[in-house]
Amino acid sequence: MSAPMVRVPGSPALLSRRRCCALAVALTGSTIALAPPATAAERRPPIRDRLRHEAEQLLRDGGYVNAAIVVRDGRERSQAYAGPADLRTGRPVPHDARLRIGSATKAFVATVVLQLVAEGRLSLADSVERWLPGVVTGNGNDGCRVTVRHLLQHTGGLHNYSIELPDTAAGFEQVRFRDTNARELVDAAMRFAPSFPPATPEDPTPNWEYSNTGYVLAGMIIERVTGRSWADQVRTRVLRPLRLDDSYAPGGDPTLPAPYAHSYHRFPDRDAWVDTTIRNMSWGDAAGEMISTHADLDRFFTALLGGRLLPPAQLALMRTTVPMPADFEQVMPGVRYGLGLMRQPLPGGGYRWGHGGDIEGSKIRMGVTEDGRRSVVIVVNGTDDGDEIGLRAEVAVQRLTDRLLAPEA
User: Fold this and answer.
1) DSSP state letter for 147
2) Which active-site residues does the annotation give?
3) Is residue 5 part of a domain?
4) Mean pLDDT for each consecutive 10-residue tract of the chain (409 residues)?
5) Which of 54, 59, 216, 309 is the most exposed place for a label (fewest CB within 10 A)?
6) Do 335 and 367 form a contact (C-beta atoms < 8 A)?
7) 68 located within any domain
8) What is the tally of structural domains in the chain?
9) Per 3-state DSSP, what percentage of the chain is helix, strand, and coil (rounded to 5)?
């Protein structure tokens, strides 16, 4: 869920549930074939073979344990998997696996906030102090100066509490099943001074720093405005209307429903892979707690960008972006951040929209083209804290996302 330099956090009609089931039964191989344009068919192998090769190459280039790729072109979906889902048994990666989406949770939370803005119950210019008096204070922090917009766009300068979480295997095991709550997370961040003063509306290139603290506060504000938790509001306002039946916020439940691929992380104090699959994600809260699937992520982001969840004015606000720092640009050239959305230019023109997610052991990268025609969701498990290894792994998955979304490039 965190986003340090080398671990960066990325409508057409949808298939009916009956047709999805029929297609799933038919998937005895790793993909279903798309029908490429005649000119493309002359220049590149069938999508079935191409995706399988890409998944295998991604493991080699990035050093991952397993990978799952799902591509949609119009109404058709194609899938490929590589590597073992479980290092102990060697079983293959399952279709339609459940997965922890990390910071992709932020797009769901930002959507609910903007729905409340559209209803006149909240303003992006509202201060945190207005809704959460006395919560953002101390050590130079001032909730009167930090607005809801700052929270959603990472321009408020609030310290990122997740930086202080253990980064060793021993530390991970100590907190693996620890339960926490939003106020504890924010209080932990308030022990540190802000990184910079909150941005002003007039600044076209504001200071920017990834802060999970901002989204935890956004979740708290949702609850203060509506009287119900952010997880309940996401479920009621987003998941149910879109029939995203496999997506939810687990709270303190450490389990991951089957089927799933295991996540693995190599910590600096241990050479062997550590299985990080089963863990309490309450420390992620509204910044990164949710569980979902490839299909649900595609459906959510396609519906969001297609205007099914927000009125045009609020969707335009969500898509109004600011530059991200040079360490992101290193592996994601041209990347910009909106309100819970990231935008990246595609080779050959156009943009991809979405939001990635990282937790120890797992990485999600996804994108939807501006017209909503094509989407890709890539999930890889098996991450490493080493700077050089992490950078190479990130570059590999970023380049693959671009190739799959811009096949004509």
Assistant:
1) B
2) 103
3) no
4) 39 31 30 42 63 92 94 92 97 94 98 98 98 97 98 98 94 96 98 96 90 98 98 98 98 96 95 96 98 97 97 97 90 94 93 96 95 94 81 89 78
5) 59
6) no
7) yes
8) 1
9) 35, 15, 45
